[in-house]
Amino acid sequence: MTIAQIKQQVFEEIGKAKDIKSLEKIRIKYLGRKGYLTKILKSLKDLPMEERKKIGPIANELKEKIDEVLKEKMEIIIINTEYKPIDLTLPGKKFYRGHLHPLTIVEKQIQEIFTQLGFEIIESDEIENEYYNFDALNMPPNHPARDMWDTFWIKNETVLKNKKKQKYLLRTHTSPVQIHYMEKYEPPFRIVSPGTVYRYEAIDASHDIQFNQLECLVVDKNINFSNFKFIVLSFFQKLFSKKINVQFIPSYFPFVEPGVQINISCQYCNQKGCSLCKNTGWIEIAGAGMVHPKVFECVGYNPKEWQGFAFGLGLERIAIIKYKIPDIRLFNSGNLRFIKQF
Amino acid sequence: MKFSYNWLNEFLQKLPPVKKLAEQLTLKSFEVEKIERKNNDFILDINLPPNRFSDASGHLGLAREISAILNIPLKLPFFSLQEDQKQKINDFVNVKIQNKNDCYRYTSRAIFDVKIKESPNWLKKRLNGCGLQSINNIVDATNYVMLITGQPLHAFDYDKLAGNKIKTIIVRRAKNKEMIATLDGKKFLLDKDILLISDLKNPLAIAGIKGGKVAEIDENTKKVVLESASFNPALIRRASKKIGITTDASLRFERTLSPILTIEAINYLAWLIQKLAGGKILKGLVDVFPEKTSKKVLGFNFEKFYRFIGFTIDKKFIKQTFENLGFKIIKKTTNDLFLEVPPYRVDVERFEDLAEEILRLYDYNKIPAIAPIAHIKPINVNEGVLFRNKIRDVLISYGIDEIRSYSLISRNDLQNFNLNTKDLIQLENPASAEYEYLQSTLIINLLKIANLNLKFYNEVKIFEIGKTFQKAPIKPYEEWRLSIALATKNKKSDELFLELKGIIEGLVESLNCAEFSFEDINIHWFAKNHSAKIKYDNLDLGYIGQINSALAYKYANGFNIVICELDIEKLFKISKEEYEFTPLPKYPAVIRDISILVDLDIKVSEILNIIYESEPKILFDVDLFDIYEGKNLPENKKSLGFHLIFQAEDHTLTSKEVGKSIEKIISNLKNKLGAEVR
Questions:
Q1: Is residue B103 part of a domain?
Q2: B108 and B60 belong to one structural domain
């Protein structure tokens, strides 16, 4: 086919084409790898210079023109194709997703924050013996501070530790993990340990017999109180918001000295006073302090060489504040009307 | 612990308004939990830490603390004791401590010719404000002085003690099965773990806990013998737990009181009793104090302190603070202070305790937050935690909700599930019968929760990742498990079973675990022929099954529930971390369908085995796409449709090759299973 013949035919064919498919056929017929016009363009190189100069521009011009007309026609076809209208207000097809438990969501966030801060995640058993839950944490038998942790004891199960018969119990806090870890590893280190703990308590809207805690422990040569405050502040700022305030007040835990209670500014009322913060503007969130030298001695660290800090917080409490959950009993209830909200 | 604002005000000048006081106490000393208005007073409920009872459980002690934190002067109560010059206490009272490790100090005074009467109003009000009942002027005086000094006190009726003129008081352990009747008329059977105050004949009091009936002060009492003592705290605590009584006295004694307190308290008490009840205070006091406590001196190095806190605090402030708190600076150099600890501060034993004193009075909230300089080292990722999170993510992507529940189950549950109490860990002091044993399987609580939710949903799909517990020879054993439950009001149980099986298979693939096998097994929790063991090689990973009708009725109103439980640690062990590439096929696959009719009881796995065995070379995959039984089929027969996918690694298959293969497969199915091709 000559250029003239192509010129004569191609536009007529395009004009008659009714759909994209026939349009594509036309494109291939003329511009495809073996198309009529492509053949002419390919043969140019074999022509004498004179002819090449004459035909070349014409062929290229025609190619551009065909491309252009094909494009225009395609637009026309697209615009004129009729579809059966869809009611766009119909609901989308359901893809049901499951829901993570809110504590899992909180745990994951906390794990991520601490991982970013260079902490390792450690786990330990829920059944503990007296030594790890109390003695090694500077609470020998008949220490009055043991009253701060109402304990579920395990029937008829004991173990020998330090030549003493130790009773088994359900751990009342995650702090025993400190001892297990330090017995096994040498400092320096930074660890966090989430886990389930148990307290013998009457169950009500703010108390449960089974809940979750997170323990944090840092031991190093020069880790000091100001560093401790920095880590605590950074953690809560990442977990809640940059604007959060943190308050330290004196408190007592036998395994830290000095011991403090950590309060955060109430996120509900912006410290204007509400029921959650009991009108104080502050919410109790964690117990903390510098590791007591007796604890270091107990695991064979030299307290003159090492210092560190520890804190423990309740995960339910974090979730309660974050998601405004009014009743701690919901967490263990398995109620899907609760779970499906997260 | 309750403190009266007005009372505190008597020892302090310029006490700020109660709210301001409470705020400062909370920030610098002890948390004030509640402020209550009572008559014309405010009662502060203070959460006093157990190590501060010695110095701050009395109003005077708390006032001393307030004076230090607010830097306002303390006004000590003034009294002067008028002793009788003729009668000496040593001629009337004699004290013996049997074991100096049980009782560190015992101080006694006696007052004769007292008059028992009702207490004056001001005294009643004071006691009442702090939650104590008024009894008579003598008993009230002992309580009043305890509320000031923190030292518990007791009074005996001299005339009721055994002996003629000289009465002997003995601090000793009870004998086994010895009895005592206490002031409230109750009787207690004692043993040698319990410390007693006794005379030569009878027990007079359970030491540090409660007075006895024998030497009770009554309206006829004329002569009183006073007790101000210091006991071994652990002993008092153990005794108090053992006999089940906690009193204002025992609460204080079990928290370590300094023996220094006894003298001031007994002197003040004697003076007060004389004021309230008249009488003569016998000359002198009996003071048995076997091992005098020595003065505690601690060094305080500024450099060490600055390293500990990470910034500096003005040395002047530090010195002033120690002095305000009653510490004596006995020596100072540029870098060190040598401090004599006030004797009532039993909590201060080391450098860290001193650091706390400075920091809390400086105000923790003024401490800067400074980024630590720490070692950088690669973190060991906790694989177990990640693995469990991955399981969670896969399961929620399948539309299954995560729940959490208690780890505890009831005795009733054990019976229903035929679990052996011998294998289960039991609590000594369960909160209720509902939570008496640690669970050895997650499915009991999951079942309860599935049922609870069927009240609100027609279909429930839930999973839990939790711990299960079992007795074991060395120590109680616990492991992580996964349990998934599907419950429905509508679907058939077979459908539900296959759905759960599919979920497990999908999970296995997502976790990149090796493929499991499902083996028939009968577990009594499950419906007959509706349960399987989940295995990998010889490893038992768990089981799957439909809850049997009895349990379904007990726990789930008879609804269909299919449940599985898997051992997460084992799953973790067989999961691979890495993937391995297999080359993509170079030659096209050929797909042919066959449809066969077989007996109902023939298992799909049997058919598949025969198909694969018939063509080990070019048969690439087999897919079951249709199962049918019922209408239009002979009885006891089912029809199965399979896609057979053929592929060769080294050439394009011809239809002749494939045809030959199919013939072989069909003939084997006919011969071995009696299958008919449709």
A1: yes
A2: no
Say if residue B472 is in the same domain as residue B540: yes
How far is it, in rounded angstroms, from Cα A127 to Cα B424?
A: 13
Longest Cα–Cα distance in chain B: 133
Distance linking the first and last C-alpha atoms of chain A = 69
CA neighbor of B458 nearest in space, from B504, B496, B404: B496
Asked whether the predicted pLDDT for residue B53 surpasses 90, the reply is yes
Of A101, A201, A226, the CB nearest to B368: A226
* Residue B531, domain member (yes or no): yes
Structure tokens at B132: 């104590």
Q: Which domain holds residue B214?
A: 83-288
Q: How far is B117 from chain A (nearest CA, A)?
A: 37
Catalytic residue among A9, A199, A210, A267: A199
pLDDT tens column, B144-184: 999 999 999 999 999 999 998 899 999 999 999 999 999 98
* Same domain membership, residue B257 and residue B116: yes
**Binding-face residues of B in 97-116 toward A, CB within 8 A:** none
% residues pLDDT > 70 (chain B): 100
Active-site residue identified among A178, A213, A261, A307: A213
- What is the number of domains present in chain B? 5
What's the complex ipTM? 0.88
**Does residue A286 have an active-site annotation?**
no
Chain A to chain B Cβ contacts (< 8 Å): 230
Do B149 and B30 have their domain in common?
A: no
Query: Is B611 in the same domain as B569?
Result: no
Q: Indicate the residue among B573, B606, B639 that finishes a domain.
A: B573
- Domain assignment present for residue B174? The answer is yes
Distance from CA of B27 to the nearest CA of A (A): 5
Interface of A with B in 94-133 (CB under 8 A): 96-101, 103-104, 108, 111, 115, 118-123, 125-127
CATH assignment at residue B56: 3.30.56.10
pLDDT tens string B479-535:
999 999 999 888 788 889 999 999 999 999 999 887 788 888 888 899 988 899 999
Could you tell me which residues are beta bridge partners of residue B628?
Answer: B639
Q: Which of A59, A310, A317, A319 is catalytic?
A: A310
Ordered alpha helix ranges (H), chain A: 3-16, 20-31, 36-43, 49-80, 102-116, 130-133, 176-184, 225-239, 293-298, 315-323, 336-339
Distance from the Cα of A8 to chain B's closest Cα (Å) equals 44
Alpha helices in B440-536 (DSSP H): 443-454, 493-510
CATH of the domain at B648: 3.30.70.380
Chain A 274-293, residues with CB within 8 Å of chain B CB atoms: 290, 292-293
Q: Which residue of B has its CA nearest to A256?
A: B352
